[in-house]
Amino acid sequence: MVKWLSGKIKIEITRGYNHSKQLTSNFHVNAKNYYKNNNLTTQQLNYLTRSGLSKNEVMMIEACSFGSMVIDGRNFSSDLVIYPDGRVVDNWRRERGHRLSINDIALLIESEPEVIVVGTGINGLMKPKAGLAELLSQKNIVFLSAPNQKAMNLYNEQINKKRAGACFHLFC
């Protein structure tokens, strides 16, 4: 079950697996039922329908510190990627340590985010390769890069507006 809390709005979405083990969702039906019964605004329903997800299915980042990040109550202690569908994949590695290239985020790009937020480490030591922002712009993806604390805030703001993905270097 997934919950979206925004002000006084709460949406619960049940998800399960069909006979071929593919993830299925009763999202649209439940969101529309919620709209009828609880005055979900048209703008909120449109956002949910466009994204195909609830707000917290695209995980909110609760806290970050050196070597640690808390996402939806789960503590992570290695570099990670957050996909627009809500998956969090930890133990993320880059080809060249503190350099971020397009190959490092290829799977994230394939998930078709509208925005990618990059946490460059607590002290901001991981650097995007020159031209990465321009390459993503050509794919109509907004690229935001900042030290982790600011990137965490940027990500949490962006998921309220767009289909967002992120990657975080939890050290340095």
Walk me through the structure:
The protein is an alpha/beta fold and 172 residues long. The protein folds into two domains: 2-51, no CATH class; 61-168, Hypothetical Protein Mth938, Chain: A, CATH 3.40.1230. Helices cover 26% and strands 31% of the residues. It is built from five helices and 14 strands. The protein has helices at 27-38, 42-51, 106-110, 132-138, 148-158, and strands at 2-6, 9-13, 15-17, 23-25, 61-65, 68-71, 74-76, 80-82, 88-90, 99-100, 115-119, 127-128, 142-146, 164-168. The strands form five sheets. Strands 9-8-14-11-13 form a five-stranded mixed sheet, sandwiched between helices. Strands 5-6-7 form a three-stranded antiparallel sheet. Strands 1-2 form a two-stranded antiparallel sheet. A hairpin with a 2-residue loop joins strand 6 and strand 7 (74-76). Helix 1 runs antiparallel to helix 2 (42-51). The chain is globular. The chain starts with a strand and ends with a strand.
Brief summary:
With 172 residues, the chain is α/β, with parallel strands linked by helices.
Fill in the keyword field for this structure:
172 residues, alpha/beta, Hypothetical Protein Mth938, Chain: A, 2 domains, 5-stranded mixed beta sheet, 3-stranded antiparallel beta sheet, globular, disordered N terminus
